[in-house]
Amino acid sequence: ALSYFFYFGIAWAFTKLPPVRRFLDNRVPQLTNRLNEMYYVGPIQQKKDHISACIAAAQQTKDMIQQLPKLYDVQIENVDLQLENNYRDRLKQAFTEVKSRLDCQVALAATKAELEKDYMIDWITNQVVQNITPDLEKKNIQSCLAQLQTLSKSAKI
C-alpha cells in the first residue's frame, strides 16, 4: 500500500514542474477529448445511427404493410384478368369449332342438294328418252315441219 502512495507522490511532484506542466496543459485536453470521443461520444453516436437506421427500417416496413391491401387487390385483379383472358380464348376456340362444324354441315347439305338435283335431272331425262318411241318421234317431226310451213307462209304476207 505504501508503494501506491510513493508513486502517487512522485507523479504529483512531477506534474508540478514547469516544463512538464506546460506539456501536460497542451496534451491533457487533447487526450481527454480523444478519450471522450473514443469512449463516450463515439459509441453514443454509433447507437444513435443504429437506432435511426432501425427507425427508418421500421418506417419502411410500416409503409410496406400499409401497401399490402393494395398489392392484394392488384393481384386479385391480375388473376381476374388472366381468368377472363382464358375464358375469352376458350370462347373463341368454341366459336371456331362450332363455326367449322356448321360450315361443314352447310357444305354437306349443299353437296347433297346438288347431287339430288343432278340425279333428278338425269332420271327425268332418262325417263323422257325411254318414253319416246319411233312413232312418237315421227309424229313430232311431222308436226314441227307443219308448224314451220305455216309460219313460213304467214311470214311471206
TrEMBL record:
Keywords of the record: CF(0), Hydrogen ion transport, Ion transport, Membrane, Mitochondrion, Mitochondrion inner membrane, Transport
GO cellular component, one term: proton-transporting ATP synthase complex
A Pfam family the protein falls into: Mt_ATP-synt_B
Record InterPro entries: ATP_synth_Bsub_B/MI25, ATP_synth_F0_suB
Major place of residence: mitochondrion
Gene Ontology molecular functions: proton-transporting ATP synthase activity, rotational mechanism
Localisation per UniProt entry: Mitochondrion; Mitochondrion inner membrane
General function of this protein: Subunit b, of the mitochondrial membrane ATP synthase complex (F(1)F(0) ATP synthase or Complex V) that produces ATP from ADP in the presence of a proton gradient across the membrane which is generated by electron transport complexes of the respiratory chain. ATP synthase complex consist of a soluble F(1) head domain - the catalytic core - and a membrane F(1) domain - the membrane proton channel. These two domains are linked by a central stalk rotating inside the F(1) region and a stationary peripheral stalk.
Homology family: Belongs to the eukaryotic ATPase B chain family.
Subunit comment: F-type ATPases have 2 components, CF(1) - the catalytic core - and CF(0) - the membrane proton channel. CF(1) and CF(0) have multiple subunits.
The protein's name: ATP synthase subunit b
Native source organism of the sequence: Magallana gigas
